[in-house]
Amino acid sequence: MDISRMPEDWPYRTKARLIPSRPHDWYVIDAGHGRTILMLHGAGGSGHSFRALVPHLATQGRLIIPDLPGQGFSRAGNRGRLGVDQMAEDLWRLCATMKIHPAVIVGHSAGAAVALRMAELAPVSAVVGINAALGAFEGAAGVLFPLLARILSLTPLVPTFVSRLWGNAATVKKLIASTGSTLDAEGLALYLALVRDAGHIDGTLGMMAQWRLEGLSGRLPQQHTPTLLITTAGDKVVPPRVSREAAGRMPAATVVQLKSLGHLAHEEDAARVAAPLLEWLTRQTLAAS
User: Fold this and answer.
1) Which of 104-118, 198-212, 268-282 comes out lowest in average pLDDT?
2) Domain housing 272
3) Model-level pTM?
4) 159 in a domain, yes or no?
């Protein structure tokens, strides 16, 4: 999305800036002080999705919240680098540009997979996944969904068509409801702004088309970074069993399941998500001291 089209009341606009870091131009929220906590949103979202969680984590350190390449207000300088491995590499390059090294990486959905890949590439103290997308689509969908996304991402007019077709309040409300979550009017309006932007749709389709988890999934038994996976019973996108199965293969993973909330749990009830997250981070800090 062209940053000139950003609504005046976009969350944490005054704390954000554009940072060129090859190959992308990143829109990054930078708030707070202390140890660095990197926060990665899921596919189809933007850094705004953490708006309600930021106040709860503000005492924990400096929060760095980028829009992923091609989504939100970040520009993808290379559309061939939207997969999990490439995004992780480019995020570390962004960190180097900003002269930071995150102690903790918090990821929602697909952002959690990117967080774990980043932890493979360079050491971090802890990873937190919120409804982490760590499982591939099952059966025929595992072949057809990525293939369809690839075809759509290579068709120039598709993003514009999709943004026009879905860019209305009623459709966005249905899309959000299909995740198992219920957002207030402000939350729905923010997603409506994203869906109405063809560039954001193009970036999301590109990410879906290049999404491959086989490598990361196969290496989970070698993932020794302390990891908390927060899952919710009402998630219609990534069922809780995905986190449980992933944690069962990881030497240092803990799973916490919350009741009733959907895939966008951190937007529905940030306090409920923050409680186990902060408790776990406190234990990790004490254990490391």
Assistant:
1) 198-212
2) 3-136+216-288
3) 0.93
4) no
